[in-house]
Amino acid sequence: MSSPHGSAGDNPTGRPEYGGMRESPLWDRYTIEEIQAKAQLGRYRISGFSLHRRIPRLDDLVFLPAAMTRLPLEGYRESCETKTVLGARHGCAKPIELSVPVYITSMSFGALSWNAKAALGRAASAIGTCTCTGEGGMLAEEREESSLLVYQMTPSRYMLDLEHLRRADAIEVAMGQGAKPGTGGLLPGAKVADRVAEMRTLPKGIDQRSAVRHPDFLGADDMEVKLEELRIATDNQVPIFVKMPATRVREDVKMAAKAGADVIVVDGMEGATGASPEFLLDHTGIPTVAAVATAREALEEMGLYGEVNLVVSGGIGSGADAAKALALGADAVAIGTAALIALNCNAPIYQDDYARLGTAPGFCHHCHTGLCPVGITTQEPDLVARLDIQAAADRVENFINAMVLEMTLMAKACGKSNVHNLESEDLRALTIEAAAMAHVPLAGTDWIPGREARR
Amino acid sequence: MNRSDSAVRTWPGVPADAVHLDADGLDAREFNRKLQELAQVHDLLAVDNPRARHNLGIGLETGAAHIHFLGSVGYYCGGFNAGAEITVHGNAGWGLGEAMAAGQITVRGSTAWSAGAGMRGGTIVITGDAGPRTGIAMKGGNILVAGTVGFMSGFMAHQGKLVALGGAGDALGASMYEGRIFVAGPVAGLGADAIERDLDGVDLEELRRDLAQAGLAWPAQPLHKIEAEGRLWYFDKHDARIWRNI
Ligand SMILES: Cc1cc2nc3c(=O)[nH]c(=O)nc-3n(C[C@H](O)[C@H](O)[C@H](O)COP(=O)(O)O)c2cc1C
Ligand code: SF4
Questions:
Q1: Is A113 strand, coil or helix?
Q2: What would the pLDDT profile of A382-406 be if each residue is shown by its tens digit?
Q3: What pLDDT, on the 0 to 100 scale, is given for residue A399?
Q4: Would you say the CB of residue A176 lies under 6 angstroms from ligand 1?
Q5: Could you point out which of A46, A158, A349, B80 has its C-alpha 20 to 30 Å from the C-alpha of B53?
């Protein structure tokens, strides 16, 4: 393959050369290391955080703010509404009323430390938004700190009984998550400390691999009966969310809507985890950018768009991402990793402890070890103490406020006085992939791959 | 439809002074609201015409009355029970007493799948047979079955006690964390990680007391005790040091 005309042709991979050595594009160092690690372990790797590959993202979309044919609002002067109501579909007494369309997603106590849970709850309450328990039961500190708490009912039903159900401001029935669709939760033994074990009724220190199928319903019809049971048990005071991973989004969203969900949460493949078989992170589900548009269309096809609320999560890292999700049809977004990063995840402090895990700030995905250097994903009291609740809550509050400022500024640039008025017509795609997935035209064209031109 | 199909029969064990509530003409929400109201004031209730409807007797709280369902009930009867005593004079559908924390549910008949799913406390007594996945994900309390339990009973149970006096289907006790299953009669097969262990004095004493309280006869065939061996509790131990750091 060598070329007489110099080095470019010698390196068909287009990758940098290392002292004249060429790396195989197929068996690169990453792949080699991967195989050799498995050759030692005898099983898949386990990891926290999110995926390890490039995928089409909300980032591949841009807004078309007002210029000539549309009028913008004054970004620094005029107001823009952000209030968001979730779950009014079945007339429950207390739908979830959020001051902003951003809330903290389900992350279990167990995966997270008690300080992290408390800080997220405090930040959410300061903002006027909600937070979610996740699978590990309802932590007392979290309930105390959170003015609006969504209680997750997973197949394992940890700590689930009438008393806890009635303390919830909404119930989220978990049908999976984007990080590992079709697979139950995973909590390595290092994190199954006394309190976690007690709340989950587990022997202390075991590797908990929780169930993926619900124990007492299987399909749409029995799920409908189940959701009605939850409404009766809570005297129809609170809404019912159904959370699902983004896989067969069109069909799954319809099924959840038919079963009676008030709010449907769709978690894209970017959705993070405290611990998962690593290959599931990379090889399952569809990207958030594809999930949102499909979910909206599914509801539209049922005539339920606007009646059933749509929440989207997975890789939402900025106000721009959130604004795009809203424009594509979401009523709100839920954030996990971004909130953890605001707490201090991957912050350049306690660098020796990152090094002990074989990593460094900016590279850490070691939540599964239970040895989080910054006290977020650990149950070790000394490490947890590193996370000061008030300071951490302030950072998360600041970050969400920054996100919301970005969202309102974008909405006003697009001439909208309410963030919920953003629409997919306001978007264009920078790549063909994103255009096809988000069902918006490729920039500079009328072309939505797979669809007829819409003008 | 005769308004009181079930009322014209006499129901053994249902006292004559029970206050009656007719389920006919009420949807599940209205029914439960009425039932809760009555349970606040009366100790003894009898529900006429349950007609195997779903979601009957949901979320009854501690100190609530003894409620007799005069006929079969549908899915999730007694779900989220937090202390009531319930007797079903008939069969029960899926998820009987799911997520129950306290109280007692007695079924004078058989139950479908997943009785006692995720229950945390209290007692379920079934005088007939129980379907598959009885006691799935249970976290406490007792399930006592006079007949058989179906396949995968005790699946992923955390704690608690499941007793089947007439045998069990396949994959009994699959992937339990802890908890105990006692079974007399034929067992089609044990599930993943389930292992038979010897009964000890404490087991026998508890069982004698439980069965006597439930009014169930001691089985003619010997009892076997099934528990988790614990092999699924950990990923292979030899690689724990390695996987901590990847
Ligand atoms: C530490 C951690 C713990 C999590 N625990 C749960 C859980 O208990 N239940 C659940 O449904 N999802 C859980 N998730 C997934 C999140 O709810 C959410 O779907 C995902 O993190 C969203 O993507 P993002 O992190 O990119 O914002 C967890 C995620 C993380 C990072
Ligand atoms: S810093 Fe902590 S929370 Fe962040 S990736 Fe590392 S272990 Fe996980």
A1: coil
A2: 999 999 999 999 999 999 999 999 9
A3: 98
A4: no
A5: A158
B32 interaction partners in chain A (CB closer than 8 Å): 232
Mean pLDDT by 10 residues, chain A (455 residues): 42 64 92 92 90 96 96 94 97 98 98 98 98 96 97 97 97 97 93 96 93 95 98 97 98 98 98 95 97 98 98 98 98 98 98 96 96 98 98 98 98 98 97 97 96 62
Residues A313 and A178 sit within 8 Å (Cβ to Cβ) = yes
CB contact under 8 A, A232 and B32: yes
Tens of pLDDT, residues A237-291: 999 999 999 999 999 999 999 999 999 999 999 999 999 999 999 999 999 999 9
If we measure between CA atoms, which residue out of B120, B82, B112, B72 comes closest to residue B96? Answer: B112
**Ligand 2 touching residue A366 (CB < 6 A):** yes
The pLDDT, as a whole number, for residue A12 is 56
Q: How far is the CA of A322 from the centre of ligand 2 (A)?
A: 23
Rounded to whole angstroms, the Cα distance separating B115 from B103 reads 15
Cβ within 8 Å, pair A226-B177: no
Stated pTM of the model: 0.95
Residue B200 DSSP one-character state: -
Q: Are A437 and A287 in contact (CB under 8 A)?
A: yes
**Strand B19-22 with A149-153, pairing:** unpaired
Give the DSSP letter of residue A205: T
Contact B239 A42 (CB under 8 A): yes
Min mean pLDDT across A115-119, A203-207, B10-14, B217-221 is at B10-14
Collapsing DSSP to helix, strand or coil, A312 comes out as strand
Residue with token string 């979910």: A295
Partner residue facing B94 (CB), from A159, A209, A216: A216
Tokens, residue A114: 């008690």
**CA–CA min distance B10, chain A (Å):** 30
Q: What is the residue whose two structure tokens read 């100190």?
A: B63
SS3 label, residue A308: strand
Per-residue confidence (pLDDT) for residue A2, from 0 to 100: 38
Task: Select from B55, B100, B234 the Cβ nearest to the Cβ of A225.
Answer: B55
Domains, chain A, ranges and CATH? 58-438 (3.20.20.70)
CB-based contact (8 Å) between A19 and chain B? no
**Nearest chain B alpha carbon to A160:** B99
Overall average pLDDT of the B65-83 stretch: 97
Helix (H, G, I), strand (E, B) or coil at B10: coil
pLDDT at A345 (0 to 100)? 98
Distances (CA, A) of A52 to A55, A129, A280, A282, B207: 9, 30, 11, 6, 53
Describe the crossing of helices A319-328 and A288-302 by its angle, rounded to 10 degrees. Answer: 30
First to last CA, chain B: 67
- Sketch the domain layout of chain B as residue ranges: 51-245
Would you call A1 an interface residue with chain B, using a CB distance cutoff of 8 Å?
no
Q: CATH 3.40.50.450: does it fit domain B51-245?
A: no
**Bridge partner residues of A98 (DSSP):** A84
Pairing of strands B223-228, B180-184: antiparallel
Tokens for A193, please give them: 């400390």
